Amino acid sequence: MNFGILSNGNTFQQWQFESIKLLIEAGHNCTLLIVNDNLVENQRFFDRWIHYPYSKMLCRLWFRYFLKPDAKKRVNFNDFYSNIPEIKCLTRQKGYAEYFFKIDVDIIKSYNLDFMLRFGFDIIKGDILDAAKYGVWSYHHDDDRKYRGVPTGFWEILFGDPVNAAILQRLTDKLDSGIILHKAYFATINHSWEANLNNLLQCSTEWPLQVCRKIENGNTEFLSVSNSPESAIYKTPGNFKMIRFLLKVAINKLKFHYRDLFLSEKWNVGIISLPAEELVIPGNHTIPEPLWLTINNEKSVFHADPFGFVEGGSYHIICEEYDYKSPKGILTSYQVDRLTNQILKKSIALEKSYHLAYPYLFEYANVRYCIPENSEGSSVDLYRYEISEGKLVFDQTLIENLKAVDTSIFFHEGTWWLFFTDKTATNERLNIWYSENLRGPYKSHANNPVKVDIRSSRPAGNPFILDGKLLRPAQDCSIRSGRRITINQVLTLTPNDYIETEYATLNPALTSKFRDGMHTFCVTEGTIIVDGKRECFIWQAFTRKLSFKFKKLFKIKK
Q1: Of the candidates 434, 488, 19, which has an alpha carbon nearest to the alpha carbon of residue 210?
Q2: pLDDT at 262
């Protein structure tokens, strides 16, 4: 595809440059650089002093001298791409918007552009918006349904919103009502405006490339879906609001380090003797109190990520066993009496020199298989589960050199589908690989990551069919990792396209000892196997975290 860039010059912010670079490296052609040629009036010092907005001085100074995210570092475009045609354009101001002159629009049209990226100019309207086949694409790094205006990544922190969002939209003549091309949700980093802003910018660089992939694969329905947000428009905060913001960030930072240092996760495995149809109902619900297994009373040890099945009079469960003394996870197997809930047998199913977790169990051709979370080993490996011994026996590697987190596999409409998040954004970036055969070879989905959403991306159990609907459990990590379970309904699943929507949310039982979180939901034969979390002080975790912070503070190498 041919694209142009609307810019204010020949330098770009790092994240903008990366977005352009990804397009070019994928084979798309940057055929025109459209540079803003409007003169910026330089006021005399006395006039600037008289007309300076002193009521907003603190925010302006902070933004200029203290807010320095890496994503906003300047890159000289000509140092990398010097042979791209360039035209300079003047615009005329009409109200709050800029309009291009017809002669310039005609020149731009002659380049037969498929789209333009807006990395310059201000609010633009008029014929320029239709000068490329798919219009002008522009970023808005906030949730358009909540926060319009400026500054980016600020209001979520001030208002205590746990979720940030950002969009890539095709601009229309109606302000802030463009056609949404791509949208993603991130956790708000509420103890650092710089980190929050940096995350929003850096995580959005590949979106134009992903939209191009959709168009090339024939998925163009989204190009005509209108958007009419009714959120308030925010402006640069005044000095008192900025002081309130800085105090809030300071308090959040203290809370963050307190939680990080003094509170650790203690997980346990529980069983709910109900079928999925009685528990998974559209809307927001709280699960009943599970029957918690008494596996280990040692405070430094927890058990999480349970998968299992019912055979005879027993539950067979494999889960992660984590010891803060190590610290690493191993996989342990349990046979549990179905009537008494007592553990009949325990064995170490799999142990390696590095961390293991999320032992995804499934059955195929009367054989029980398992794919453990093996991101530190950089591969997706298939194991057979030997029930009598409670052991996992290596079968084969399905995908090499892939840091997949919480891999979940299932067979649907003639294809094996692998869902996982990647190590670069464990809780946010959902990826899919697929194959006609269980043993591969596997191919990457045409538009990975297919979804970026802190509330419902990371797998949390085995997908299942309910009332003819394909449902996929996922973790809601919007407040903290493993907060609760989101059940997504898969609407479209093909090698080129993926669409899902929220079907239900499941919260931990409020009266439970383990009510602080839940991040695995395994459906099996009229039973649900879950885990639950409580946050508490654990000495072994505290000493390790304290040592890490001390070394980081004084830049001591390991």
Answers
A1: 19
A2: 96
